[in-house]
Design goal:
Length: 255
Amino acid sequence: MSNADTLRQLHQDHLKNYNNQEQQAIELMGLLSKLYNEQDVQVTLFGETLDATSVGQIIALHQKAALRDNGAKAIDIADTLAMVKVIAENKEIQATRIDVGQLIANGTDVQVALQSINNAGAVNGATDVVLYGFGRIGRILTRLLLSQASSAKGLQLKAIVVRPAAAGDLAKRISLLERDSIHGRFLGGISIDEDNNGMIVNGRFVQVIYAKDPSEIDYTAYGIDNALVIDNTGIWKDEAGLGKHLQSTGVKKYS
């Protein structure tokens, strides 16, 4: 075989291998989405969440995993797919994170691991989240909280709080969320709800609250209770300033 023929064959072999990985990743994405939507189970690979919407991310994470020192145990997408199929068959697993990379690398029996998770019980319920401030940090947090498949558990973004503004402010803020000069377009559905002064992002309603000071807000009036408030304004930096959030009705107070 000539050198040219060898290179052509090499090209075909690499392409065939990548196509196989793509098909496995597509099948894996369906299982990941089903696990998250129906059982609130997130699957990770050495601490990094496997994205149920990105073939490229799944392949890239497995390539990255191949460079790790896993005791000479290479982890292929086929390995992950086989394990996730077993996990998906167990309907008792709820509200947890499972690191398939660690399970595979350590040679852990998946059934034993699942039984241990069942015995431990669910690790998280639903937590209302309020973003106080909607600058670039607030918008990036919004993307992170709402980019995953919908679930009734975990962190639930319920509202953002901004200072009172002129007419048309809501449309302007949605436009900024959709397009970011550094992070690019938001790959999701966003629409405005003028009647209820909010936005609908990937099917989830997010209330927009206008306020000058945290202490004047009653979150329970918006159906929000025991909320985790994330202040990303940078205005208040000490205990006294940030403590104003604890004066808001509906904020979770940790003892």
